[in-house]
Design goal:
Shape: elongated
Strand content: 5-15%
Structural class: alpha/beta
Bound molecules: iron/sulfur cluster
Distance between the termini: 70 Å
Strand order of the largest sheet: 7-6-5-4-3-2-8-9-10
């Protein structure tokens, strides 16, 4: 049995990468329950879009207000009346006071809001401020096509602290969608406005929004925008749905994908100083920074829209889905903002921005965390409503893969490629097991010496767990009084060392040695030994060397069902196995699966200590077919590593001399784990921040499973068909 012994070797502490691997397994499907939309709207409104003018002096061909299904603008007054502004201000005051909102954005929009005139916008600001500013900080902004910007207009707006963002798609040839009512390109007038804004050098100029036209090369766009030194440039994909797919994509499937890949790479390599929010968000998603744009990511409905007549609508772009697609009941004259939160349209919108509300394809997608299923209106499908992946699924998927690749390559420059192997095999595995066991002993010994623990005969994991503990009551180590038990001649079985359990008591409780479940587990260990020996004698031998403690436990996690086992990198070389599920014994081959599973986690912890497989262990996060919710990259890598080997274990059992083995179950398990491993390998290969060592690991695992096609990439929600 491995207890503290002398044995000094150089240790290297790896950075804090606590990866808890409580695992609940079995054949139950891991599909997220759909929560009802009525339960999910929790956020507050933090901004209102005030449509002070319902008409526009331009007639852009992609405009969601005038060119899509919804034509409700025709019934709106041309300009917002003063009485409507006053009522809006009162509603806003009522809302911020009741909901304790301390900062609120008011965005002037249209149509073209400058048709309302700068003078009236300034008066509107004054009116709203008089009513609301004593209770809440207000931030005013304007979204304009720029054609009506003069020096005087800009001066008036900036003096009233109204910030300005402009829409312009690029140089003259890129701006051909933005035409006036005679069909003339609006570039000259708009650029003149932009020029004036830039000349002010004011912080109140916030940047430019450009809608992508794949006919215009990314290079032309960057060459145009770069010298302008814009405070921000936002690229938007043209508003589309599955009913009205992006223009030109039916003829060329890769039209938008290729454009985006080229643009992203060019930006990443040559123009990274241009702050493009969407691209920045994609990169940030790799390291866990929430998305700054509603093209991607989860969130809540925080913006409400007030039409020119004072009526409420949801986000304007819902107008692309169907007639009155954005309509809500009532107006500032009849309803408070609070009432809107209860509206079915807002609830559905809010639900669709949550992880439960995305389409089934998205729940199985490795980039769900970053993409969030895409912009909600872009998901609209005539049969599925908003329960579909975005119509830009393929484009987003591919551009995230490209971003991951570029980021990974750029990180490599700064990192020493310090690895000699990825997956120890055969004799190496046994040698490594010896090395890892000894390193753990040495580490525990050093800690015991420094903390003056009386730890003679105590297992290393117990020493390390006690050293990490913040328990107020610092228990002594427990001494064995009864006859020690072991498995394989060296693995300590069912220790009564309380430090092996104390830190995990929320999850596990150790079975009494006299209990039936313990006796059942112990009695089956001989069979497990035979199965593991048949699977791979080297694995069994290295397990004997590496694993110090095997404890039979039961789960104390509420609602835990299915096969349960546990290990943690804070308790190196100790594994915890439940031999029963709800008091029902599990077959010996499943006990073998659990022991192998946790041993593999321990192997990967040790391999990771010798050199990282990932640049970041927490992000990106992955949806996984074996567990609900999103897994950290570290946990996802562990799952993939484990399932690769479990696939081989069950394959070996399906072709074994053991008569008691259910062949069909073994074959099915082998297939299931292989499928999960393939999903994991593919996802990690394209979307994780793998180091070179990580890439070598993925390749070695794929080789073990004899799979070549893990490098193939296809978005789960690609090619969604519309039956008309
Ligand atoms: S399936 Fe498509 S839309 Fe859904 S999360 Fe993945 S990339 Fe986004």
């Amino acid at each position: 049995m491995k207890r503290l012994t002398l044995g000094i070797k150089k240790s290297n502490f790896h950075k804090a990468t606590l990866i808890t691997t409580t695992s609940t397994r079995g054949d139950k499907p891991m599909q997220a329950e759909i929560t009802q939309p009525s339960e999910v709207r929790k956020g507050k409104y933090l901004a209102a879009l005030l449509k002070v003018a319902s008409r526009c002096n331009l007639n852009c061909d992609y405009c969601y207000v005038y060119q899509h299904k919804d034509q409700s603008w025709e019934n709106q007054p041309k300009l917002m009346a003063k009485g409507t502004v006053q009522k809006f201000a009162e509603r806003l005051k009522e809302y911020v006071l009741k909901n304790e909102v301390t900062s609120f954005d008011v965005i002037f929009h249209g149509g073209e809001p400058l048709l309302y005139t700068a003078e009236n916008l300034v008066k509107t600001v004054q009116l709203i401020e008089e009513t609301v500013a004593p209770f809440c900080q207000l931030n005013f902004s304007l979204q304009t096509n720029g054609t009506l910007l003069t020096d005087e207009v800009i001066d008036n707006l900036f003096t009233a602290n109204i910030s300005i963002s402009m829409s312009l798609d690029g140089p003259q040839n890129a701006n051909h969608h933005r035409v006036d009512h005679k069909g003339e390109n609006s570039f000259n007038e708009a650029f003149s406005g932009l020029d004036k804004l830039i000349a002010t050098d004011s912080d109140l100029f916030k940047g430019v929004i450009a809608v992508v036209d794949p006919k215009v090369s990314p290079k032309d766009l960057f060459q145009f925008f770069d010298p302008l030194n814009l405070p921000r440039l936002d690229f938007l994909l043209p508003d589309s749905t599955h009913l009205n797919p992006p223009v030109g994509r039916n003829r060329d499937k890769g039209l938008y994908t290729n454009w985006l890949l080229e643009a992203f790479e060019l930006w990443f390599k040559d123009y990274p100083h241009i702050p493009i929010r969407w691209f920045d968000s994609i990169l940030a998603s790799r390291v866990g920074i929430p998305s700054q744009t509603d093209v991607m990511g989860f969130g809540d409905v925080s913006l409400l829209v007030v039409e020119t007549d004072g009526s409420y609508t949801d986000h304007d772009v819902f107008k692309i889905t169907k007639p009155n697609g954005a309509s809500l009941d009532g107006s500032v004259f009849s309803n408070s903002f609070d009432k809107l939160s209860d509206h079915a349209v807002i609830k559905e919108h809010s639900y669709r921005l949550s992880i439960e509300g995305v389409a089934e394809e998205c729940k199985k997608c490795p980039v769900l965390d970053a993409c969030g299923g895409g912009s909600v209106p872009h998901r609209y499908h005539p049969e599925r409503g908003l329960d579909a992946p975005t119509v830009y699924c393929q484009e987003i998927y591919q551009v995230i893969a490209k971003a991951t690749k570029l980021l990974r390559e750029s990180l490599k420059i700064d990192v020493e490629a310090n690895y000699s192997y990825a997956v120890p095999k055969g004799e190496t595995l046994v040698l490594k097991a010896n090395e890892w066991a000894e390193e753990t002993l040495m580490r525990a010994r050093r800690i015991a010496d420094s903390k003056k623990y009386h730890a003679e005969g105590v297992t290393p994991a117990a020493v390390l767990l006690r050293a990490m503990s913040t328990n107020i009551v610092d228990f002594d180590f427990t001494r064995e009084e009864s006859e020690p038990l072991n498995w394989l001649g060296s693995i300590y079985l069912q220790s009564n060392e309380k430090w092996l359990v104390e830190p995990f008591k929320e999850s596990i409780s150790v079975l009494d040695r006299e209990s039936e479940p313990f006796k059942y587990g112990q009695a089956n260990l001989k069979k497990v030994e035979n199965y593991l020996n048949h699977f791979n004698p080297t694995v069994l031998e290295s397990m004997r060397i590496l694993i110090s403690d095997l404890l039979f436990v039961r789960s104390t996690i509420e609602n835990e069902s299915g096969i349960f086992s546990f290990s943690d990198d804070t308790a190196p070389n100790a594994i915890y196995i439940a031999p029963t599920v709800n008091q029902v014994p599990i077959p010996a081959e499943d006990i073998g699966d659990s022991i192998l599973h946790e041993y593999l986690h321990q192997v990967l912890y040790h391999m990771g200590r010798e050199g990282d497989f990932l640049f970041d262990h927490s992000f990106p996060r992955f949806s996984a077919p074996w567990r609900e919710g999103l897994r950290s990259s570290g946990g996802f890598l562990h799952g993939t590593f484990v399932f690769t080997h479990l696939a081989l274990y069950w394959e070996a059992l399906s072709d074994s001399p053991f008569e008691e083995i259910d062949r069909t179950k073994a074959e099915n398990n082998a297939k299931k784990f292989k499928k999960q491993a393939m999903y994991g390998l593919n996802s990690l290969y394209h979307f994780a921040l793998l180091t070179e060592r990580g890439e070598a690991l993925i390749e070695a695992l794929a080789e073990k499973l004899d799979i070549q096609d893990y490098k193939y990439i296809e978005a789960p929600g690609k090619d969604l068909k519309v039956e008309l």
